[in-house]
Amino acid sequence: MELSFLTTIILFLSHVSYGICLIAFRQQWVGVKGKLACNNKPLEGAVVRLWDKNLVGPDILLGETKSDINGVYEAIGGLQSVFPLNVHLRISHECDDRMIPCMRTVDLNVPSKYVSRGPELETWLDAGQMNMAFRYPDEARVCN
Predict the structure, then answer these.
(1) pTM (2 decimals)?
(2) pLDDT value at residue 24
(3) What keywords sit in the KW lines (predicted)?
């Protein structure tokens, strides 16, 4: 009788801990869409990446795409994590580059309200149209 009671308790606790793990490690999603221009023309071929920037350890690439012939992009990515994602939109391009090595890269913080927890993306961040001819604060050159 004691063995079956102990077995019942162990089974119960294992189911509870499994449920807690499922809730804790929920999928998180983020999606950003917009249009890129270089002066008055659509910016084709810009690399658009979504990163989870970590305080400790390496940053994690969540998703990547390139802007199309019209400068339009839709980047989506996700990750299972206990901790909230710290998402950054990183755009690498060669607008007004004058043959300088490496790509101009802009790193922008994505507000946490656009990170969805659950089985699918709930809300897109519409970044609108950005003219990459501007020099953005903290813009850098990145060689891949």
Answers:
(1) 0.80
(2) 46
(3) Secreted, Signal
